[in-house]
């Protein structure tokens, strides 16, 4: 997800049919985003296809959409004053632990989805 939002091109093998019987992998996710219009073909060679964000507007919509999902599931505001303080603590004092703890809380809230 981060590499997509950073506008890095994504190699993909398109998923032609989704099934609840198989695990949803990275190619499935990229394929779904392509089918929904969030990604577009940027490069095509005989052996692979690279996807990227179609434009800045989609990038912003995409970021807002997934930020909202993360906030809804975690019950935490991503850009709160508390989370900004954890980043400041890392930047100013080299202390990464508050940021790590904040990220752990958010990631643990997603365990019910796996």
Specify Rg, calculated over alpha carbons: 17 Å
Number of strands: 3
Large-scale geometry: elongated
Number of helices: 5
Helix content: 40-55%
Number of domains: 2
Q: Would you list the SSEs in sequence order as H and E?
A: HEHEEHHH
Average predicted confidence as pLDDT: 81
Description:
- The chain has 114 residues and is mainly alpha-helical.
- The protein has two domains: 51 residues, no CATH class; 58 residues, no CATH class.
- 51% of the residues lie in helices and 11% in strands.
- The protein is built from five helices and three strands, in the order αβαββααα.
- A hairpin with a 4-residue loop joins strand 2 and strand 3.
- The radius of gyration is 17 Å and the shape is elongated.
- The two termini are 17 Å apart.
- The mean pLDDT is 81.
